[in-house]
Amino acid sequence: MAQTNTVTPLFNDLAKIEHDRNVACHACSLYSLCLPLGLDNNDLVKLDTIIERSQNYKRGHTLFTSKQPFKSLFVVRSGSFKTTISAADGRDQVTGFYFPGEFIGLDAIHQQNYPSNARSLESSSVCELPFSNLEDIGKEMPQLQIQMLTRLSKELAGDKNLMLLLGKKTADEKLATFLLSLSKRFQERGFSATNFQLSMSRSDIANHLGLAVETVSRLFSRFQEEGWIVIAGKSLVIKNTAKLEQLCG
Amino acid sequence: MAQTNTVTPLFNDLAKIEHDRNVACHACSLYSLCLPLGLDNNDLVKLDTIIERSQNYKRGHTLFTSKQPFKSLFVVRSGSFKTTISAADGRDQVTGFYFPGEFIGLDAIHQQNYPSNARSLESSSVCELPFSNLEDIGKEMPQLQIQMLTRLSKELAGDKNLMLLLGKKTADEKLATFLLSLSKRFQERGFSATNFQLSMSRSDIANHLGLAVETVSRLFSRFQEEGWIVIAGKSLVIKNTAKLEQLCG
DNA sequence: CGCGCGTTTGACATGACTCAAATGCTGTGG
DNA sequence: CCACAGCATTTGAGTCATGTCAAACGCGCG
Questions:
Q1: Which end of chain B has fewer CB atoms within 10 angstroms, the N or the C?
Q2: Global pTM exceeds 0.85
Q3: Do the chains contact at B153 and A152, CB–CB below 8 Å?
Q4: Domain segments of chain A: what residues?
């Protein structure tokens, strides 16, 4: 249980990370998690001229939908987002949740229009990378393209694991896996691995994990009865990480 | 029903596409589907010196497993492959099937070891791209990196659709979607969209779709009773594409 | 402060799984 | 070339995890 939360607030608030639109990459608190990692100073300056920093969006803001032409990639600067794809009949699947430093729109690079939809789960902001520019400067900044390849590959590997989750895991295993995945990502961002806010709704979680809302609700209740977590609305405390790891399957 | 099968054999045999190890990219029958697309002549010559063409593997050959260090990407030259990832307890998920011209190993770029396993489903061969080299020549052949980005993005988009399938679709919808996906990929390779061989076992199909083998078997039987397909062992004939499309959900 | 929606909880239904057994196919060795 | 062994596939019967329907609750937003 002995967590080393050096400079960590009790509850994360990703929306508060960075609201200043004028912070350059080299001064951004996300520097070590974000795109510019590995770029030299010259390239960093170039990148700063390309990136467009968004205003602060409120909850439910649509970054893009599958009907819109692909123009830009986005990196979350603060807050969080979800992406979804829609079947012909309107059913949709939450394909991912995105936190500061993570890319949104990587699945769009190869085509005219975004194949998915992206919207904010809370007060949020992004850095926007116009893609036409990015392609042009590929030759000038090969290191940036390597970064892009790395990011794409990482998301791909994550999605393969989600396929394992959706295809093979039980409801218990799904939720345990999901909670630990969130935990790890919060920790990577310097927040507590055991105390955080779920910015997404129960129904978003259920949808993402291929479950019914009611099932997720029941699981939360049972996990709490068992003493593995404490859940109150959107606030989550993980009390028994080892047990959850064991549950992951 | 009026299919225009111009130069198409009755049944596809991907294993027969190209067995000559000495065919250079520019002369390869897969040229238009493969990596070199968009490269100028100079780059194509360079690429030819980098690529290593494998011998002909037999069914069940392991290209790599998740324990091995990441060295190369592979492009299927003939035959077909499946990739899987394994959970801690040994359960595994078939994450994809790969046909001539398609990349295997893209999810490995960002890390030391392959995160998944790849093995051939039939007599098969590959072109191997040692990745260290590829990274070095990124500057020289930016167009190649764009191709890589495009491929990665395409696979990512495909995987998002698989998440929709695994998370939201019924067994009927899953199988219909799967069969049409195969159909489309065969057609892209110049084969019949309605007559082909399933190189993967029922249990591979079941696993990939998040179903039990018995369910898949029953579905094949029922689809046949309904007159939508004719299935005999590994040979499939699609009789009613429209119905399957309607079933996709 | 009150309305509305998100969440929780309960009761019941069912699609798909598991277990079991028959059948069929494939590759191998005599 | 055929016979056999072993594995893949099919088919049937019964169960179960999770979904669906319904209703109460309560938090958060306006």
A1: N
A2: yes
A3: yes
A4: 12-165, 170-248
